[in-house]
TrEMBL record:
Entry-linked InterPro entries: ATP_synth_asu-like_sf, Lumazine-bd, Lumazine-bd_dom, Riboflavin_synthase-like_b-brl
Annotated protein name in UniProt: Riboflavin synthase
BP-aspect Gene Ontology terms: riboflavin biosynthetic process
One of the Pfam families matching this protein, by short name: Lum_binding
Lumazine-binding repeat locations: 1-97, 98-194
């Protein structure tokens, strides 16, 4: 589990595809690596991946086609900036909201509005997921816990503060880009349960 508070921006150092597996090397700081062990789960732009190896300033992961088809990892090139978060430890603080690292879809940036030092993003989702969007609810965007603003059918707006822009790759997003979207599981559970109860009652 993760909290959606990005600890560091890494960058893609190397990509190698072999036997339907993409091996990913991400450069990051010694400070981030020191507490990471082989076999640990790390949020890579919101995707829960398992550490396969590490050095003093890099960590390595493998991604299979199922992951590549459902996330923006398939778009990575050397130099791409990556949001990183290590998994939560028992007793640790949760600064954002609980996230599993399981991406529901890649959503599309439809508008980018720069307002002083802040940025608003308008994001479009597939129709099947739009019912889980609620104003002031939570979503995960590239592993960042973000509060939802206005909603208009399949589109929603988020307001990104300067600190989040500085410390994550959300500041790099432009019109037409894709982001990893994880919806709030509590919202999904409540919505689906309510719909089922109403169907049963009818």
């Amino acid at each position: 589990m993760f909290s959606g508070i990005v600890q560091e921006k890494g960058s893609i150092a190397n990509l190698q595809k072999q036997n339907e597996v993409l091996s990913i090397e991400i450069s990051c700081s010694e400070n981030f690596v020191k507490d990471i062990s082989v076999g640990d789960s790390v949020s890579v732009d919101g995707v829960c991946l398992t550490v396969t190896s590490k050095s003093s300033n890099s960590i390595n992961f493998d991604a299979v086609n199922e992951t590549l088809n459902r996330t923006i990892i398939n778009n990575y090139i050397v130099g791409t900036k990556i949001n990183l978060e290590s998994s939560l430890k028992f007793g640790g603080s949760i600064g954002g909201h609980l996230m599993s690292g399981h991406i529901h879809q890649t959503a599309i940036i439809k508008e980018v509005l720069i307002i002083g030092d802040t940025k608003d993003l308008v994001i479009e989702v597939d129709a099947e997921w739009s019912k889980y969007l609620f104003e002031k609810g939570y979503v995960g965007l590239n592993g960042c816990s973000i509060t939802i603003g206005q909603i208009n059918e399949r589109r929603f707006k988020v307001h990104i503060i300067p600190e989040t822009l500085r410390s994550t790759n959300l500041d790099d997003l432009v019109f037409g880009d894709q982001v990893n979207l994880e919806l709030d599981q509590n919202t999904i559970t409540i919505t689906d349960t309510t719909e089922r109860l109403l169907r049963d009652k009818a």
